[in-house]
Design a protein that fits this description.
CATH architecture: 3-Layer(aba) Sandwich
CATH superfamily: P-loop containing nucleotide triphosphate hydrolases
Low-confidence stretches: none
Number of strands: 8
Order of helices and strands: EHEHHEEEHHEHEHHEH
Structural class: alpha/beta
CATH topology: Rossmann fold
Largest sheet: 5 strands, parallel
Radius of gyration: 17 Å
Number of domains: 1
Shape: globular
Strand content: 15-25%
Bound molecules: 2'-deoxycytidine-5'-monophosphate
Number of helices: 9
Distance between the termini: 9 Å
Mean pLDDT: 93
Length: 221
């Protein structure tokens, strides 16, 4: 037995199915699940709530360090106040890319994410830079993707709206997330890329679970 944490990194663009797959996978593996996007959303909401200008990088970074963010059981809280609903609203969604591009904020979030994984002996962690930056030694790195059209159709089925407009907004967010200088969204050479278009959650989870068992055995030996 060794005590290396069993980290499964699930990265990919918005709407690729990361949350659904990561949650189902964590439950199948008996591991906990962390949604790191909720952390960036929580900082964004806190800044807007306290009228901190999002382009004031130092002030937003200081705020990120001073608040207590908890993401667990499908809920997100900041300083013990439940912000699960407002962080999914349009205002936060439109602004979060700016906060996620702030290097000092990313440093704080990375520290929290690493501490989360290490204190639990592992977990399924979902985000954009988990396999590339946060846990480069993860047991398994999965990069989930789907075409912008498929992702827009899924999002519209959840929250309503126009598919063309949603597709444009998804492509804009992709561009921001993958062109920022700090930890851009990208695949790493050792990640497994899975296109989730036209496939069931169960089939994808089965495929990922089948890749984990031999890796756990190999790590133990
Ligand atoms: O997954 P999401 O849509 O809730 O993520 C919100 C934003 O945070 C999105 O712009 C990408 C960014 N993000 C990031 O830069 N790094 C992460 N590990 C997770 C999310």
């Amino acid at each position: 037995m060794n005590s290396t944490p069993v980290i499964v990194a699930i990265d990919g663009p918005a709407g690729a199915g990361k949350s659904t797959i990561a949650r189902a996978l964590a439950s199948r593996l008996g591991l906990e699940y962390l949604d790191t996007g909720a952390m960036y959303r929580a900082v964004t909401h806190a800044a807007m709530d306290r009228s901190v200008a999002l382009d004031d990088t130092e002030a937003v970074a200081a705020l990120a360090r001073s608040i207590s963010i908890r993401v667990a059981d499908g809920k997100t809280s900041v300083d013990d106040i439940d912000v699960s609903e407002p962080i999914r609203g349009g205002a936060v969604t439109a602004a979060v890319s700016t906060v996620a591009a702030n290097s000092a904020v990313r440093r704080s979030m990375r520290d929290l994410q690493r501490a989360w994984g290490l204190s639990r002996g592992g977990g399924v962690i979902e985000g954009r830079d988990i396999g590339t930056v946060v846990f480069p030694d993860a047991l398994l790195k999965v990069y989930l993707t789907a075409s912008p059209r498929v992702r827009a159709e899924r999002r519209v089925a959840e929250v309503g709206g126009d598919v063309d407009a949603m597709e444009r907004s998804i492509m804009e967010r992709d561009h921001k997330d993958s062109s920022r200088s700090d930890s851009p969204l990208s695949t790493s050479s050792d990640s497994v890329v899975i296109d989730t278009g036209g496939r069931t959650v169960d089939a994808i989870v089965d495929e990922i679970v089948a890749m984990i068992a031999p890796r756990r055995t190999a790590r133990r030996s």
